[in-house]
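Worked example (supplementary).
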Amino acid sequence: MMQDIIHQYLRPSKKFPHVWCPGCGDGIVLSAIVRAIHSLGKSKNETVLVSGIGCSSRAPVYVDFPALHGTHGRALAFATGIKMANPELTVVVITGDGDGLAIGGNHFIHACRRNIDITAVVFNNSIYGMTGGQYSPTMKVNDYGATAPYGNIERPFDVCDLASAAGANFVARATAYHAIMLEKFIKMGIAKKGLSIIDVITPCPTLYSFYNKAGKNIDMMESIRDRTITIQKAEQLSDAEKEDKIVVGIFANRDFPEYTGIYSDLMERAKRSVKDEELL
Amino acid sequence: MLFYKLYKDEQGRKVGFLQGNEACLEAALIAGLKFFAGYPITPSSEIAAVAAEKLPMYGGRFIQMEDELSSMAAIVGASMTGKKTMTATSGPGFSLKQENLGYACLNEVPCVIVNVQRGGPSTGLPTQVSQGDVMQAKWGSHGDHPIIALSPSSVQEVVELTIQAFNFAEQYRNPVVLLMDETVAHMREKIVFPLAEETEIINRHHSEVDPQKYKPFDTSFGDIPPFENFGSEYRYFITGLIHDEYGYPTTKPLEVKNLLDRIHRKINDHTQQLSLFEQYQTEDAETLIISYGSPVRSCLGAMEAGRKKGMKIGVLQLKTIWPFNPEIFTKLPSKIKNIYVVELNMGQLILEIERVIKRKVNIQGINKYDGLFISDQEILKYLEQQQGKKS
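After joint prediction of all chains, the assembly is encoded as:
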């Protein structure tokens, strides 16, 4: 049945295969996005996908929505323009840890601060896959990459802490292993008015594994499963005990006013402030 | 807060005493502007301030983005929903906008980018005039890409060319750069805005094909494919990768070449329609001054003063900078012996002029790049000195 849903959403004109490596988690995440949109009953015409550059950002080419595959890091900026110009649209951003948090880091925090009604799904594999395995801003200290041959010396961002602090209404983390939980969080994020960030831990069995000897997809999936704990469980652990854990759950779920709604109110005030003859 | 007021004249036209930046946004509203995204930068700031105040009155939307990159991205995204969009900046911001300006060229997304030029390079001279971004307007974004750029010399021309910029953007599915300069942006003049019936407003061409058969870059309609809005029943994909007619990424050599050929052909084949220029007293001219933007005013002053002294001077003003139109120069009257190109830079457009004029004629640049405006007296003095050398 899941397959039936997916087949309804594949672009009829697109020639496959896709660009992702065997064992990549990105297809699982895309499938969860499609199921979430489907279960909310959103129209294909009025749901716009926007992505940046990188492995994950290729996702919108395969599914049958209006979609903009933008420039590196700018997905949230393009999406902000789309949502502002037509607030009726449902806008879903697909980005990665490099795209969304490094080159797009400024847009990430400001989209959260504005709390504009967009849902951004961060495909977080802690590595730049498409360019050959460089360390990303979410890579753990001492992990290896093409540009971290002696081990990564930079502390990683916690995507959920960052999004919560910057003001997003809904912030959650799931993994490619926990696909049903992931679908639920994406669904909640899209339904939520305001900015939603869904951080998804997903395996790169090609380049991350090559540099970190993490094994095949099955090994990486099992590792994700074994390291995953809930927010409630994490509260009972010390920082040292949490070091290697993936904490999943809902980090923020609140109702700050949403940007396009505030702007619509502003438009009403602006219209009232002028006499008709002053308008051209 | 607005620092100008509009009145109505006897014919019902809006009139006012406006600076170029204010007039630019007022004209954009006439053209149908519905979305503006920008980032504060001198000397273009007033355009955003007027947009922030006026757009919501007209049912439009304004946003101040976190940087120049994102404001360019936002106007491209907004244009995809069918709205007329614009951003305004100056040199340092124009450098940053190049990334998504290239994206808009490749995906044929109509939008208007105002660059109020100031002295450069780098942070340069934030409050002082320059025309240093003429070549950047053409070549600033990486890869071969088509561009349209217009340059006004007076506040009234700011009105004319801003409306024209939107019309060209919509008609040709291409970004249009309005190359203003600090002088024309901050100069105040009495302005008359045209009535609706006096203004031609062009909107992008929509397709009538079955949504199932729609291709966003369909070549069967000619070189300018019909545009459909995101959010309509036409669902499609666009990408910054080289794409086929469906918008899907391709590396097939023939598809790559056909795409690049077409997006350039759609502009280059319409060079004559896009080429706006004025000639002043060129019929009997022996000396021709060529210029664009605010220095044109000084050129006209020099022409008048020179003619009183018996010098046969004419002026050629280019309103359209890109695409560059060689025909204007190959058709110049044969009496012209000396050509002077006046630019507030170290000599940029003169390179194009030298490239296209094949006959033997003396071509020299009159260049000023010290942050100050060039006066008519400076130009005339230079012309007299040159004449003195020859006689």
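Two points are worth noting when inspecting this output. The CA atoms of residues 8 and 64 of chain A lie 8 Å apart. The longest strand of chain A covers residues 246-253.
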